[in-house]
Structure formats: C-alpha cells, structure tokens
Amino acid sequence: AYVNGNKVTGTMTNRGQVIITPGTTNQTIQAGYHNGSGYVKGDSNLKSENIVSGKSIFGVNGTAQLKDTYTYIPTSDVTLFYTGSSGITTRTLTWSISGVNFNPSIVLVELRLYKRYYDAGDSDRRDSYYITVPYGTGIGSVSLNSYDGRYINCSVSISKIEVDGDTVTITIVLSNYGTNHNDGFAYVYGKKAIFIK
Fold first, then answer.
1. Residue that wins the pLDDT comparison between 70 and 133
2. Closest Cα to residue 110, out of 87, 80, 82, 88?
3. Which of 133, 156, 163, 166 has the most other CB atoms within 10 Å of its CB?
4. Threshold 0.90, pTM exceeds
5. Can you say how many angstroms the Cα of residue 33 is from the centroid of all Cα atoms in its chain?
6. Which residues are paired to 115 by β-bridges?
7. Is 90:175 a contact under the CB 8 Å cutoff?
8. How far is CA 123 from CA 92, 149, 150, 175, 180, in A?
C-alpha cells in the first residue's frame, strides 16, 4: 500500500485458521485476516429434545420435560408380610409412604424376601433375596433357592397406587407364594420405593 506516494508495509495480523468453540458468553473475533479455513464448532447433541422446555440454546428451543422424583428408603426394613405356612395362594399387601408431593406416574418398589428356618441341628439359617417391581409389571414364578434346597416361590406385582395428599399407598400382590419348608418363617419387607412424576 502507498501513503502520500510512499510504500508502507501493513501490520494486519495473520490469524491463519481460526476455530471458535461456542460458550456461555460472546467471544470477540480478533482483528486480522484469516486463511478462510476456520469455522465455528457444532455439536450433534444440540437438539430440542436435549434442552429443557422453556430454554433456548443458540436458537434451538427445548422440548425436554423435567421429571420430579422422590426416593424413599426407610431406616429399617418395613414388614409387609409374615407367614409360617408353606403355601399362600394370593396375598395383597399395602405400603403407605408419606412425603411424596406429586402424583406419580411411575413407581418402582424394591422388596426383600426373607426366609428364616432351623435345620436338624437347630441352627438358625437365614436367606434374603431382593426383587425390584415396576408398577404395572408382574414378575412371574420367581423361584428363589436358599440353603439346602429350600426356597421361596412367588409372583409379585404392584396392582394399584393411591394418592392422598402427600401419602402414596402401594398395593402389592403376591401370587402362589410359598416355601418348601415348614420349619421356619417367611417375611416380605419393603426396602425402597422410587416415585417419578
């Protein structure tokens, strides 16, 4: 370039290839010249279903819905059922849990099936098994083998959930519940319940 007939050397900085990664604030494009191969990075996860409804990121409006959840874990197992019998055709149990501040659409319940009995030498034998039951889904013909071939056999399902204020009552159905050993006791305990709005 020439100024007043005199040749001058430019001082514009050569930025070469400039790559910009979007962030939470505006980024200044530095003065200078680029070689034309630069770009602004994209992300395949920038989709409406990955953004919370009511929010927008780089012009993409979110459609994802937040789910309220509440997890209840008692300080000790809650006894829902006890029997000394080897066979129970059907048993309906209820478990009421307070502190749930919404109407749940999904309920997951973790149950502990517990068999306690005495062997020929009068030794105390105990076995525990855990089942997670989703609302509306049964678990069919679960055979839980325990010590010395003794077992607890049952089908488990959640048949109903009822909401009264912040208390949810879960109805649990045991079908074909039984054991192959009478000399002892069988329990069903409530271990955990997860509520999803």
1. 70
2. 80
3. 156
4. no
5. 51
6. 127, 186
7. yes
8. 32, 16, 15, 30, 18
Express each pLDDT in 47-62 by its tens digit.
Answer: 998 888 889 999 999 9
Q: Are 91 and 174 in contact (CB under 8 A)?
A: yes
Q: Measure Cα distances from 135 to 2, 92, 111, 139, 195 in Å.
A: 82, 15, 13, 11, 10
What does residue 67 show for φ and ψ, rounded to 5 degrees? -110, 125
pLDDT digits (tens, 9 = 90+) for 86-135: 555 677 888 899 888 888 878 888 887 776 665 555 555 556 666 776 66
Tell me the chain's radius of gyration from C-alpha atoms: 32
Please name the helix (run of DSSP H) or strand (run of DSSP E) that holds residue 7, with its range, or none. Answer: strand 6-7
CA 94-97-100 angle, 5° bins: 135
Element (H or E) spanning 174, and its range? strand 167-179
User: Which tokens belong to 63?
Assistant: 């459609």
| DSSP summary character for residue 64 | B
Q: Which of 95, 104, 66 is nearest to 195 (CA)?
A: 104
